Amino acid sequence: MKWHSRHPSSYSWRIALRLRVAKKVAGEGSPACHMCLFFTLFLKLGWKFYDADDYHPEENRMKMRKGIPLNDQDRIPWLCNLHDILLRDVATGQHVVLACSALKKVYRDILIQGKDGAPRKCAEPGKEEKLAEVKLFVVHLSGSFEVISGRLLQRKGHFMPPELLQSQFDILEPPSAPENFIQISVDKNLSEIIATILKVLK
Question: The pTM is what?
Answer without folding.
Answer: 0.76
